Amino acid sequence: MSVTAVIPAYNEERTVGAVVRVVKESSLVSEVIVVNDGSADGTSQAARRAGAKVIDLPVNRGKGAAIRVAMEAGHGDVLLLLDADLVGLRGEHVEALLTPVLRGDCEMTVGVFEGGRPATDLAQAIVPGLSGQRAVKRSLLNGACDLEMSRFGVEVVLNRLTREQHARVMEVHLPDLTHRMKEEKMGLVRGFLARLKMYWEIVRHLHR
Fold first, then answer.
1. Which helix (H) or strand (E) holds 112?
2. What are the angstrom distances between the C-alpha of 15 and each of 19, 166, 176?
3. How far apart are CA 23 and CA 7, in angstroms?
4. Which of 59, 121, 144, 183 has the highest CB neighbour number within 10 Å of its CB?
5. Among 62, 42, 139, 64, residue whose Cα is nearest residue 54
6. Domains of the chain (ranges, CATH numbers)
7. pLDDT (tens digit, 9 = 90+) per residue, 100-133?
């Protein structure tokens, strides 16, 4: 099975290049697609310099729509979904996410941070089902008719799909991996408000 890495990115010029470079080094990954979701910074240029295929969206459409755009442009039987703001990503993380799916042990893996830093470790320990680091068979995602509208609720949509289709899911630990928090990227107030908006979108999809 071939693998398309999908990296939705919104104003992530500081980290997206490093994420792309690690993924491109993996022999398991056939192509790397970064969807620049209406960024106002140098995200697109940073991703291209690192060697990704970049799709530029003129306005921010949200994570779910970005993933759908990448699915339509990519060819992999398996999609590796990664956040663009990861810090500490290594090749073994990519392998840990992909191997169970490629081996046929499950239809989706969910990566859980471990030993990165307390704030992000705690968040994922409490709600591992909201992790954005996943490998998933394309055939499973094809059934996500509301993916484009999910925005930050995309992980909730994926979790619901696995239950509806009785798909097998495995959690995998991703040691020493973390990500930049919204408050770090946007400042305390704007970051907090963006976090509230994200939680609202998640809760909205939980009740669908």
1. strand 108-114
2. 7, 35, 16
3. 10
4. 144
5. 42
6. 3-179 (3.90.550.10)
7. 999 999 999 999 988 655 554 445 454 555 788 9
